[in-house]
Target: 3-hydroxyacyl-CoA dehydrogenase
Amino acid sequence: MTGHVIVTGGGSGVGAEIAHAVARSGAAVTIMGRREGPLREQGLPFQTCDVTDAEAVGAAFAAARDAQGPITGVIANAGAAHSAPFHKLAAQDMADMMAVNVTGVFNVWQAALPDMKEAGKGRLIAIASTAGLKGYPYVAGYVAAKHGVVGLTRALGLELARTGITVNAICPGFIDTPLLARSVDNIVQSTGKTEDEARKILASASPQNRFVETGEVAAAAMYLLSDAAAAVNGHALSLSGGEV
Ligand code: NAP
Model:
């Protein structure tokens, strides 16, 4: 692949897997996240930034563009999940869920748009979740935010349909990453179940009774980034073994 792809949250989990797949394809990649340590560990070009801060995102994109050329693809992958029963969900927790999962996607897509409009082509991709397509208990803020990402994808896909730019969301079920490890810890603390029992409960959400592999998410992202996916637009692609 040619071009220059930005992957947010590229220092760990799904984002790191996608970033390495992009690099292996021959395209330039820049990973972004808040902590320098995990980004540096990937051995890929990086810029630190908080995706909730539009000014910081603008500066990071400008630096990435100066270093490796115009942006041709964005994987808006940075995200976080807060779990609590709804009556204990603080207003700040709700605002934090919207900030990282929705405004974060908005900020990075908007920062990439001028390069793509100028080129007459581009790929805007978000890593949403099955939580963008159906509900789950005890994660109302996360579910609301991921539904927001799918809505943003559908609206912007239509708005940009005649520009050569496509906009899509990938919606995986549970994946074994640091984010999942935090959810498992949370279940262990709040229910007294063992770690193994908690992991089995989460895996059983999939009809295939397993977690989605980070490599499966990366393969979907590589397809959506490719020229072959030019007709796929405004789409939310479920990777969930048939859960949704
Ligand atoms: P992860 O390893 O925790 O990755 C999240 C990444 O996002 C981290 O590298 C983190 O780095 C970065 N990040 C978080 N907040 C940020 C912010 N404000 N600004 C910039 N970067 C930020 O978890 P993951 O599972 O790979 O998650 C990746 C995406 O997949 C998320 O959007 C998640 O919702 C989605 N997803 C995960 C699952 C699952 O079961 N794991 C399922 C479906 C969808 P810093 O902390 O250094 O900023």
Notes: The first helix runs from residue 13 to 24. The CA atoms of residues 10 and 24 lie 15 Å apart. The first strand starts at residue 4 and ends at 8.
